C-alpha cells in the first residue's frame, strides 16, 4: 500500500505514503482511490482528509512512469482527481509541505484546502517541458485569478503557502507550529454538513479585457522561451480556462499535455532532472557513508580560481582562509573578491549587508600554520606538477589529521598528487569551473586511494555549495576537458579546411550551445590551451592538432584580455567582430599546408564537434572514468553550455540513434585527419546491439 487509511472520529484520513515525495504513481493512486471508496461506503464517516507522509504532501505525478503504460493504467491521475471531486462527502487537503504538480492538482480537486505556513506550492511541470496535465491550468486560475496563476504555471516557481493566504486556494493557513493534521481534521468536522460541496471547477475566472492580457503574455513568453515549446503552450492552456467551458478546457489541456510529453525537449529535460539526482550516487559508496564535517575551509592560491572557490564557501556561510606566497598576490585576490561582491550588490542580486557578512568570512594569510586547522583545503595554484608537489608536501606536514586535501587541478594526475602525501586517502580532486562562484559544475575526482568517506563528504559539500557534483576517475582532463579537447581539435581542423571562426560559432550556437568554441576561447584566454598543447607536443607527439590556434597566440591575440583573439574587440565592449587579420591568417595557413579550402555546411560543423564529444565520451564511459552516460551529460549541461533542450551529448546521440552517429563518424574517418575518428568500441557495440548510452 502506498496510501494509508485511518479513522479519526467521523473523519477518514488518507495519507499518501510513497517516499520520498509521495509521487502519485499507480500504486499510490490505487490506494488513494480505494481509501475514498472505503470512506464513502462507511456511514460513520462524514468527511475525508487527504494528507502526505514525510517531507511532502506530494511532489506530483511519478515522473518515472511517463512514457510507460503505468501512467495510463487506471486509476490515472485524472480518475483519482475525478473520484475526489465527485465525492459526496467533503474532502479536505491537509498540506504541510511540498505540494507540486499533480500533488497541487489533486489538492485543487478537493473541496477544501488547509495548509501549514511554509508549504511550497508549485506547478513546476514547465521545467520538465510539459504543462500541468491533470486540471492545473484550468483550476489554478479559478482560485488565484488569471495573472497569478499564469505566472506560477509559466515559471514553475514555488510560492510559499503563507503568501497565498487569503486567496481562494486556501480555506485556512494555520499558525506557525500548529498541528496541521489536527487542524485539518477539525476543519473537516466543521464543514461535514455543508451542502452543496464547493468545487473549484464551478468557479469562474474573471479578468477584465483578458484577451489583451493573454496576447501580451503570448508575446512576452514567446520572446523568452527560445527552443522550449512548453511555456507558450502553458499560456494557451491557461487561456482556455477563461475562454472555454471547464470540461472543454480540461480536454484541451490534456491534448497539449500529450503532445508535450512525447516531445524530444521534454524527454531531454526529464533526463536532465534524473541525471542531476543520480549523479550524487556512487554504487560502492552507500548513502549512509559517514561524512566529515566541513565547518572551515582554506584555499591555497588566490588567483582566478582560488578567489571564486573561496566565494563559494563564504556564500555557504563557511569561513575560508586564502593562502598565497606573496602579500601583493594575496591583496589582489582579496580585492577581487570584494569587487565581485560589490558588483553583485550593484546588480541588485545581493544586499549590502549580506555581501559584508560574506566578505567578513574570507581572510588571508601567508603562513601555512594559519590554515592547519581547516576541515578542507583546496589547492588552486599554477597547473604545474612541481608547484603542486611543493604545496601538497607542505599540506601533508601541517594540516590536522582528518582534513580533506583537495586539488583544483584541471588536467594533472591526481594519484601522483596524492603520492606526495602520507595520507592519499584524504586527497581528492574538486575541479571547479570558471567563474567558480557562478558555474554549477563541480567535477569530483576520485583517486585510486581516495577514502569513501572523503568522496561522500565532497558530494555532500557540492550540495552545500549549490553545485552539481559529478564524480570522475583519474585521467588527463577528467571527463569534461578530456572531451572538449576532441571538440577543439575538430574546430581547429575546420578552420584549416575552409571555415572561418564566425561560421563555426554560428552553427554551434544555432544548435543551441551558449557559445561557440572561438568566442569561448576568446573569453577564457587562448593562451591556456596553447600552454596545454605545448605540453602535449612533447608528451603525446603522435596526436595531431591544427596549428591555427598557435599562430593566433603567436600574434599575441590571447582573447578578450588582450583586446584581440579569434575576433577583434573594441575597448569596453565584449561584442566579437570578425577579424580580417585572423581570417587572412587562416587562408594563408591553408595554403601553406596545401589544403584547398572548401565550403563546409553547418551540419558537418555541428556533427564534427558534437560527435567528437560523443566518441570520447564513449571511451570515458567504457574506461569507467564516468560512472554513467548521464554523468557525462550533467558535466556538459552544467559546465560547458551544452543545450539543455538536447539533454547532453550522450542523450543527444541516443536520440540521433547510435548507428547514425557511427555512420557519420565512419564518413569523417575516411576524410582528412581520419585518425581522430577511430570509433570508440563501446559506441560500435551499443550501435550493433540497437541500444543507447543511457539504456
Ligand atoms: N516523480 C518521481 N520521482 C520524484 C518526483 C516525481 N514527481 N519528484 C522527486 N522525485 C524523486 C527524485 O528523483 C529523488 O529520487 P532519488 O532519491 O531516487 O534520487 C527523490 O524524489 C528526492 O528528490 P530531490 O532530491 O529533488 O528532493 P528535494 O527534497 O530536494 O526536492 C522536490 C523535492 C521539490 C519535490 C523536487 O524533487 C522536485 O522538484 N520534484 C519535481 C516536482 C515536479 O516537477 N512535479 C511535477 C511532476 S509532473 C506532474 O505532476 C504532471 C501532472 O501535471 C500530470
Ligand atoms: P592563476 O594563475 O590565476 O592563480 C594561481 C595563484 O596561485 C596565483 O595567485 C599564484 O600567486 C598562486 N600560487 C602559485 N604558487 C603558489 C604556492 N606555492 N603557494 C600559494 N600560492 C601559489 O591560476 P588559476 O587559473 O586560478 O588556476 C589555478 C588552478 O585551477 C590550476 O590548477 C588550473 O588548472 C585550475 N583551473 C583553472 C581554471 C581556469 O579557467 N582558470 C578552470 C578550472 C581549473
Automatic annotation (TrEMBL):
One of its GO terms (molecular function) is (3S)-3-hydroxyacyl-CoA dehydrogenase (NAD+) activity. Pathway: Lipid metabolism; fatty acid beta-oxidation. CDD domains: crotonase-like. Residues 297-472 form the 3-hydroxyacyl-CoA dehydrogenase NAD binding domain. Residues 477-569, 605-691 form the 3-hydroxyacyl-CoA dehydrogenase C-terminal domain. Its main location: other. Keywords: Fatty acid metabolism, Isomerase, Lipid degradation, Lipid metabolism, Lyase, Multifunctional enzyme, NAD, Oxidoreductase, Peroxisome. It catalyses: a (3S)-3-hydroxyacyl-CoA + NAD(+) = a 3-oxoacyl-CoA + NADH + H(+). GO terms for biological process: fatty acid beta-oxidation. This is 3-hydroxyacyl-CoA dehydrogenase. It comes from Janthinobacterium psychrotolerans.
Amino acid at each position: 500500500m502506498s496510501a494509508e487509511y485511518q479513522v479519526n472520529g467521523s473523519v477518514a484520513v488518507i495519507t499518501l505514503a510513497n517516499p520520498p515525495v509521495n509521487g502519485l504513481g499507480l500504486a499510490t493512486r490505487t490506494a488513494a482511490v480505494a481509501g475514498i471508496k472505503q470512506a464513502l461506503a462507511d456511514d460513520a464517516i462524514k468527511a475525508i482528509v487527504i494528507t502526505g507522509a514525510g517531507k511532502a504532501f506530494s511532489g506530483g505525478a511519478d515522473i518515472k512512469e511517463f512514457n510507460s503504460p503505468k501512467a495510463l493504467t487506471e486509476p490515472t491521475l485524472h480518475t483519482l482527481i475525478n473520484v475526489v471531486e465527485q465525492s459526496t462527502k467533503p474532502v479536505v487537503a491537509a498540506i504541510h509541505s511540498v505540494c507540486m504538480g499533480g500533488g497541487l492538482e489533486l489538492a485543487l480537486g478537493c473541496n477544501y484546502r488547509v495548509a501549514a505556513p511554509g508549504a511550497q506550492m508549485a506547478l513546476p511541470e514547465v521545467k520538465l517541458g510539459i504543462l500541468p496535465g491533470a486540471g492545473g491550468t484550468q483550476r489554478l486560475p479559478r482560485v488565484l485569478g488569471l495573472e497569478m496563476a499564469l505566472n506560477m504555471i509559466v515559471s514553475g516557481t514555488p510560492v510559499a503557502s503563507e503568501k497565498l493566504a487569503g486567496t481562494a486556494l486556501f480555506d485556512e493557513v494555520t499558525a506557525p507550529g500548529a498541528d496541521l493534521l489536527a487542524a485539518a481534521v477539525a476543519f473537516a468536522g466543521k464543514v461535514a454538513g455543508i451542502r452543496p460541496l464547493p468545487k473549484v471547477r464551478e468557479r469562474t475566472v474573471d479578468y477584465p479585457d483578458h484577451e489583451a492580457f493573454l496576447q501580451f503574455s503570448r508575446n512576452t513568453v514567446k520572446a523568452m522561451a527560445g527552443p522550449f515549446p512548453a511555456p507558450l503552450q502553458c499560456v494557451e492552456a491557461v487561456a482556455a480556462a477563461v475562454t472555454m467551458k471547464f470540461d472543454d478546457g480540461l480536454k484541451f489541456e490534456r491534448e497539449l499535455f500529450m503532445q508535450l510529453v512525447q516531445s524530444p525537449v521534454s524527454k531531454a529535460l526529464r533526463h536532465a532532472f534524473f541525471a542531476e539526482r543520480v549523479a550524487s550516487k556512487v554504487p560502492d559508496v552507500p548513502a549512509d557513508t559517514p561524512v566529515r564535517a566541513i565547518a572551515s575551509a582554506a584555499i591555497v592560491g588566490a588567483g582566478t580560481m582560488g578567489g571564486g572557490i573561496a566565494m563559494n564557501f563564504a556564500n555557504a556561510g563557511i569561513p575560508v582562509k586564502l593562502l598565497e606566497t606573496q602579500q601583493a598576490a594575496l591583496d589582489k585576490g582579496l580585492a577581487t573578491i570584494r569587487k565581485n561582491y560589490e558588483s553583485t550588490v550593484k546588480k541588485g542580486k545581493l544586499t549590502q549587508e549580506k555581501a559584508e557578512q560574506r566578505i567578513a568570512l574570507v581572510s588571508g594569510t601567508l603562513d601555512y600554520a594559519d590554515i592547519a586547522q581547516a576541515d578542507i583545503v583546496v589547492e588552486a595554484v599554477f597547473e604545474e606538477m612541481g608547484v603542486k608537489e611543493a604545496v601538497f608536501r607542505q599540506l601533508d606536514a601541517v594540516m590536522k589529521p582528518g582534513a580533506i586535501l583537495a586539488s583544483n587541478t584541471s588536467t594533472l594526475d591526481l594519484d601522483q598528487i596524492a603520492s606526495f602525501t602520507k595520507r592519499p586517502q584524504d586527497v581528492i580532486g574538486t575541479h571547479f569551473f570558471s567563474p567558480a562562484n557562478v558555474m554549477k559544475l563541480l567535477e569530483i575526482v576520485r583517486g585510486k586511494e581516495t577514502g569513501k568517506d572523503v568522496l561522500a563528504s565532497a558530494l555532500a559539500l557540492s550540495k552545500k555549495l549549490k553545485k552539481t557534483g559529478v564524480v570522475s576517475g583519474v585521467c588527463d582532463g577528467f571527463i569534461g576537458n578530456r572531451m572538449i579537447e576532441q571538440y577543439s581539435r575538430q574546430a581547429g581542423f575546420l578552420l584549416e579546411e575552409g571555415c572561418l571562426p564566425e561560421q563555426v560559432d554560428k552553427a554551434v550556437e544555432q544548435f543551441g550551445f551558449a557559445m561557440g568554441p572561438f568566442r569561448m576561447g576568446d573569453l577564457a584566454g587562448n593562451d591556456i590551451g596553447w600552454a596545454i598543447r605545448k605540453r602535449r607536443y612533447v608528451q603525446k607527439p603522435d596526436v595531431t592538432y591544427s596549428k591555427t590556434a598557435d599562430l593566433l597566440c603567436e600574434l599575441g591575440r590571447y582573447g578578450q584580455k588582450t583586446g584581440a583573439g579569434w575576433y577583434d574587440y573594441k575597448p569596453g565592449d565584449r561584442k566579437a567582430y570578425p577579424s580580417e587579420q585572423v581570417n587572412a591568417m587562416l587562408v594563408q595557413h591553408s595554403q601553406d599546408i596545401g589544403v584547398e579550402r572548401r565550403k563546409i555546411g553547418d551540419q558537418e560543423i555541428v556533427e564534427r564537434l558534437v560527435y567528437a564529444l560523443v566518441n570520447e565520451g564513449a571511451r570515458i564511459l567504457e574506461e569507467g572514468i564516468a560512472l554513467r552516460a548521464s554523468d557525462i551529460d550533467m558535466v556538459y549541461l552544467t559546465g560547458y553550455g551544452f543545450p539543455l533542450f538536447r539533454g547532453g551529448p550522450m542523450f543527444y546521440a541516443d536520440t540521433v540513434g547510435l548507428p547514425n552517429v557511427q555512420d557519420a563518424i565512419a564518413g569523417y574517418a575516411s576524410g582528412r585527419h581520419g585518425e581522430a575518428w577511430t570509433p570508440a568500441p563501446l559506441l560500435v557495440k551499443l550501435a550493433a546491439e540497437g541500444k543507447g548510452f543511457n539504456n
